[in-house]
């Protein structure tokens, strides 16, 4: 009796090509529903044997964004790095790290890892964000990298996003950076690479909707606009600002929200953030302050006032002395009168 082989799985899980001595399972345009354990059963006469194989499906496009998009040397800063359209997103599979050269950056403080809920659809994909508090960085030229790494059985992939380090601000200027980049590339759902098989992109074209932050100068300050072109039923709200959010003038109208920043001697420094509802996607903006002079103390102001009064008194006396009438031959000059000044305590 000739041996027989067969895969045990529903028909929609792949294309079967059975044969007398073999059975081939072909999976094309893999989706997340294609993942799972497959069992191949063989029989020869009264003998039956089986072997299992685990099919993994992952999504790991090169879609990394960072906020801010560049850093400033010589100061403590917060940095966020986000990997978009990822699956699986568990910490034992996906990791985010900061690299200086080929080594992890030392002295950083991890602030947390955020895993957003996937969008509705056939293949739910995740957005994973990690935040760090950075130590003061050295003198440019210097470039950090955010690296996303996915580790699967027999396969390790990684993507990098460069983050330039700029010189410290030395003039009165404000630099604003936003957390969003250009429109994301079309989602892809590649399948694991095997012998004679290369990853095949999926047919998903769903793009998540994200809010964006725009800034425009106003007399005496800056106006920030958070907006999201996501269709009806969406709204954006400001959720974070340097200091107390309640101290800022805000106005919200559905998918648009405004926030006014008034300069008070120096620009405020820190993170501004708005959130999209429903969905929970956020946009962040980091505002660096301009270099400003410290306020003049009260004692220095009083000293300057007293010195000015003394100089005025000396100048008045010299003018009076130059204008005295000279003694003539007809007798003594007329009596002189000293000018009077209002008494000013020194």
Walk me through this protein's architecture.
With 346 residues, the chain is mainly beta. 7% of the residues lie in helices and 42% in strands. It has 1 helix and 22 strands. The longest helix has 25 residues, at 298-322. It is elongated and about 145 Å long. The model is unreliable at 7-12 and 169-206 (pLDDT under 50).
SSE-based structural type: mainly beta
Provide mean pLDDT, rounded. 75
**N-to-C terminal Cα separation, in Å?**
122 Å
* pLDDT < 50 runs, ≥5 residues: 7-12, 169-206
How do the helices and strands line up, and which of them pair or pack?
Elements: E1 4-8, E2 15-18, E3 23-26, E4 36-44, E5 47-55, E6 64-67, E7 71-72, E8 77-86, E9 94-100, E10 103-104, E11 109-116, E12 126-134, E13 142-152, E14 155-166, E15 176-178, E16 212-218, E17 221-227, E18 235-240, E19 249-253, E20 256-262, E21 270-277, E22 282-287, H1 298-322
Parallel strand pairs: 7-14
Antiparallel strand pairs: 1-4, 2-3, 4-5, 6-8, 8-12, 9-10, 9-13, 11-12, 13-14, 15-22, 16-17, 17-20, 18-21, 19-20, 21-22
Entry summary:
This protein is mainly β and about 350 residues long.
Tags for this model:
346 residues, mainly beta, five-stranded mixed beta sheet, four-stranded antiparallel beta sheet, 1 helix, 22 strands, 7% helix, 42% strand
